[in-house]
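Q: What would this chain look like folded?
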Amino acid sequence: MTYFRFTCVAAAAALLAACGGSDGPDRGVLKEAPVTVTTLTAAQIDAGTAAAGLQALSGKAKCDVKVVALNYITVGAKGSDESNASGVMLVPGGAACATPAPLVAYAKGTDVQKPRTLANPQDSETFLLAAMYAAQGYAVVATDYLGFAKSTHAFHPYLHADSEATTVIDSVRAARAAAPSVGASLSGKVMFTGYSQGGHASMAAHRAAERDHPTEFNVVAGAHLAGPYNLSGSLKLPDAIAGVQFFVPYLVTAWQKVYGNVYTDVKAAFKTPYSGYIENLLPSPTLNYTTLVTTGTLPGGPGVTPNQARDAVFQPDFLAGAQTSATHPLYVAAKKNDLLGWSPKARVLLCGGAGDPTVPPAIHQQVMKADFDSRGLTNVTSVDVDAMVQAAFGPGGQAPTDPTSAAFATYYASYHGTYEPPFCHAQARALFDQVK
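A: My prediction, written as structure tokens:
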């Protein structure tokens, strides 16, 4: 089975705008009329899932799926400045899908491409959502986040829990506002889910919805997938995660823009030449993960270990300070964005794979589950999909063990971004099917 990019012909048709509602000025109101990009037929979806080997997890499509582009009002990273975010709404249709649909609010994984929008049926993440949820009778709304696509926000507040929460929650409001004009009938039930950064964002949104808006949202479940919930704990890891040269500068510079005190001088945190441009690098208007490395903008490539990439970018004293001092500004910022210590009312699924080299479950998922367990919660389930990943993608049905082999490099480079997501989404839908 492979993770895939689905292609089809896109057609645009503008529809009438609808009004939104929220607890703050204009939050969730549609900034412009929702636009139907295309409709994926059940047959098209089945062809895509069959070609990708995904159909065993997704099942055959029951519904056609209308792909609708949204642009809605939300608040900026500091919570007081009005901003906007774009995104996609996936609307199930057809004779078999005429009953009111529960709404799945999805938060995407880490994105370094500023122009990218999920309102694109050729996007692999969008098609996975269409196949796994919308084609099975769920309405889906997925935000592009602040700072991406049509958002005019000055930066993306990466792994900033509060603004992730408001952006996702306002996407739910926007979907409700758009529903009448795009032919969506919503049941009122809401599920939150997201993958990687999106697992952090979906959990932050789930927490905020239950805590701050208990009468507005009927939250029936949250499935938070491979998310970095224990950010302060991850700073203490002696060895760097895979992708450190992308993710850690991204969060350090984002938190600097939000809090203003993570460092006093960019050169105290980053080595040259990166200190000269790192603050405005991500998300990039032109570069993706591959070209960030091949152009030499960030270190990486064959033979470069995560530790070497980390040590090339960061001043050692900066990271060492966050590892050893509870008052170091980076550690303090990480603590603010940890998601430990809350008690969900709705059912919760945590999912990840034990072999994940980017968001290690031992640091995040297992610590999060232990935190929930410490308060006697019985509504939280944790699933490890590593055996499924190994069986599908490991040579001979098991993870490669020779760190010098090409198979090892390919397997672990692909684990978090390609192999793991479909298995966790299948687990999420199994939970949602129980409460829909």
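The beta strands are 13-14, 35-40, 64-75, 82-93, 101-107, 139-143, 186-195, 218-225, 347-352, 380-384.
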